[in-house]
Design brief:
Blueprint (H helix, E strand, L loop, with lengths): L4 E9 L8 H4 L8 E6 L9 E5 L2 E5 L6 H8 L6 E8 L9 E9 L3
Antiparallel strand pairs: 1-6, 2-3, 2-5, 3-4, 5-6
């Protein structure tokens, strides 16, 4: 079985982490944890992409980075994304405690 090829699109903070289930899930999270993107109907951001770990809403892809990802999700291509926690630090400002790496994958076999 061939390994999927991954290309990083960008790295950024996980927006809103402290406002949702992030603090509750902290002990279960680690660098490399895979997150699931979900296009969300949101009155504050028409392109909102929520990020989940299991049933926990951890936060969002920042609004200045979400438009293209949202478009692919709406077209049914969620499986191409590989979104993982890339950094965690309790000592940082609450909105900078968790960073993510947003990648795309090709060549799954």
């Amino acid at each position: 079985m061939a390994k999927a090829k991954r290309r990083t699109l960008f790295n950024c903070n996980l927006a809103g982490f402290t406002y949702y289930d992030g603090p509750l899930a902290w002990e279960d999270l680690k660098v490399g944890t895979k997150l699931t993107p979900v296009a969300e109907n949101n009155a504050h951001d028409p392109n909102a992409v929520a990020l989940y770990y299991q049933d926990n809403l951890l936060g969002y892809i920042p609004r200045n980075r979400n438009e293209n990802i949202r478009a692919f999700l709406e077209m049914g291509h969620a499986d191409i994304f590989d979104i993982r926690i890339s950094r965690m630090s309790r000592e940082e400002h609450p909105e900078r405690q968790v960073d993510i790496s947003v990648g795309i994958c090709a060549g799954k076999a």
